[in-house]
Amino acid sequence: MTVTELVSYDEALASYDPVMGLEVHVELGTRTKMFCGCSTELGAEANSQVCPTCLGLPGALPVVNKAGVESAIRIGLALNCSIADWCRFARKNYFYPDMPKNFQTSQYDEPIAFDGYLDVQLEDGEVFRVEIERAHMEEDTGKSTHVGGATGRIHGASHSLLDYNRAGIPLIEIVTKPIVGAGERAPEVAKAYVAELRELIKALGVSEARMEMGQMRCDVNLSLRPKGTEKFGTRSETKNVNSLRSVERAARFEIQRHAAVLSSGGTIIQETRHFHEDTGSTTSGRVKEEAEDYRYFPEPDLVPVAPSREWVEELRATLPELPRVRRMRLREEWGISAHEMQSVLNAGAVDPIVATVEAGAPADQARKWWMGELARRANEDGVELTALAITPEQVARICALVAEGSLNDKLARQTIEGVLAGEGTPDEVVEKRGLKIVSDEGALGKAVDEAIAGNPDVAEKIRGGKVQAAGALVGAVMKATRGQADAARARQMILERLGVEG
Ligand SMILES: [Zn+2]
User: Fold this and answer.
1) What does residue 90 show for φ and ψ, rounded to 5 degrees?
2) What mean pLDDT, rounded, does the chain reach?
3) What's the 162 CA to ligand 1 centre distance in angstroms?
4) What are the tens digits of pLDDT across the range 164-186?
5) Which contiguous run of DSSP H or E holds residue 427?
6) Residue 168 C-alpha to ligand 1 middle, in angstroms?
7) What is the 3 state secondary structure string of 185-248?
8) Which helix (H) or strand (E) holds 139?
9) 293 CA distance to ligand 1 centroid (A)?
């Protein structure tokens, strides 16, 4: 059935209680695929990174990628999961052209990691615990490109192209337990969970987790139950949502759609749905198969995975400081609020600021430049802060030049401009562009004398005790020196020459 009329979000929440499940796929950054030695490098010519194993040719046998298992265990440990002593891969049988083996090698009832949790912080500062059901290993499929249709979907297409370079790239699927008790904040919890998980994956160094590149994607499962009841309703599964904002919007839309269907006496069908970025809505995909439809059975070509306890403990020792803990520590060190920290995080500025501080800059100065001028330039160019052609060491050097009085903020911005334009290091740019502040008595004194001589009426007011009028003369000095004067020193010299106490 189609629903055109949604009920309002508040109305939906007045009658129903949302239950969510989030399934996140993370593409690992291993050098080779999960079961063969093919490269995982992005951007290669279609079907140039394939072999008999990942093409499913007769007689080809898979071998497990140890680095993939290692990443899976580290993710499991970071999510506070138990790690299986022994587990197997399973075949998930179905036909689709992007999967040449006719089955996906996955894990079914024996995941490598299970029973964990991830604490996420909401915007009001409250911490919400999301329970993790399991994290299991599997492989990605190839990529279909449907040609000739209007939307890039298969409907209306004249033909399809297949690229198997992605087939066999290791994936970790992380599945939450049903998330209950979030109420009206369910969409916010979904977004915060995926955001925190992405930070965690990046901190572990197992994937770049770039959602816009499909390296991390989220299925949002959602159902409603009448308020005050226990039994879960029928769920819908919105597939492959690929931005944080979309995760939140998809959950919100489904709450409103389910409520509309249920309150008009309709029935929710268990199905997959597609999320549309442009309208913020979802449309029906296919009616969901049950697990038994896939005829899962243990993969006979692979030996079971039995990580020794020693190895698991070795891997536990490699875990980095977790992102939420690190952010709390940095907030304290930098003396900023939770809200300010959130802005730094959203700007992708945490690591650049940390590196700039390590290179010797005070935290407030490092934050000022990365969140100000540099964020503005990155935004203009539509790139990440880390893609700018300036290093944290160079930013620290600019902070030092400002601190020692060689540059003021305006000259520092010009220095940044020069570094970004490839004119050299900060010192080289200052030298080449002649940006050093004018503070020597000779040059500055001459500019001060000229400013006084050129504005006799202002000078007279200052002599008469109107000290604040000195601002106009400082302005004249700055103008004469093209903004390169040390303003504080200029003001001092003006007052001295006019015989007034500052
Ligand atoms: Zn291969």
Assistant:
1) -135, 155
2) 92
3) 15
4) 999 999 999 999 999 999 999 99
5) helix 426-433
6) 7
7) HHHHHHHHHHHHHHHHHHHHCCCCCCHHHCCEEEEEEEEEEECCCCCCCCCEEEEEECCHHHHH
8) strand 127-139
9) 27
Quick one: average pLDDT of 425-433?
Answer: 93
Residue type at position 193:
Y
Q: What residues have a C-beta under 5 A from ligand 1, the ion?
A: 36, 38, 51, 53-54
Distance between CA atoms of residues 474 and 7, nearest Å: 63
The CATH number that domain 441-497 falls under is: 1.10.10
Q: Is the pLDDT of residue 288 over 90?
A: no
| Average pLDDT value for residue range 472-489 | 87
**47 CA from centroid of ligand 1 (Å):** 10
Counting every residue written for the chain, the total comes to 502
Sign of CA dihedral 406, 407, 412, 418: negative
How many angstroms does the Cα of residue 56 sit away from the middle of ligand 1?
9
Between CA 345 and CA 144 the distance in angstroms is 35
Distance CA 188, CA 206 (A): 26
Region 333-357: mean pLDDT is 90
Task: Give the integer Cα–Cα distance in Å for 214 and 123.
Answer: 26
Contact 103, 94 (CB under 8 A): yes
pLDDT band, very low/low/confident/very high, at 223 (cuts 50, 70, 90): very high
Distance of CA 54 from the midpoint of ligand 1 (Å) = 4
Residue 31 CA to ligand 1 centre (angstroms):
12
Q: Which of 93, 42, 103, 112 is nearest to 315 (CA)?
A: 112
- Where, residue-wise, is CATH 1.10.10 in the chain? 441-497
Mean pLDDT value of segment 129-136: 98
Query: Residues 6 or more apart from 344 whose CB is under 8 A from it?
Result: 336, 350, 353, 367, 371
Dihedral sign, Cα of residue 347, residue 350, residue 356, residue 361: positive
- Indicate the Cα dihedral angle 247, 248, 253, 256, nearest 10°: 140
C-alpha 434 – ligand 1 centre gap (Å): 57
Tokens read off for 471: 């601002």
What's the rounded mean pLDDT across residues 339-364? 91
Q: What is the mean pLDDT of residues 140-162?
A: 88
Residue whose token pair is 């060491």: 393
pTM of the model: 0.80
Which amino acid does the sequence have at 73? I
Please report the pLDDT score of residue 401 as a whole number.
Answer: 93
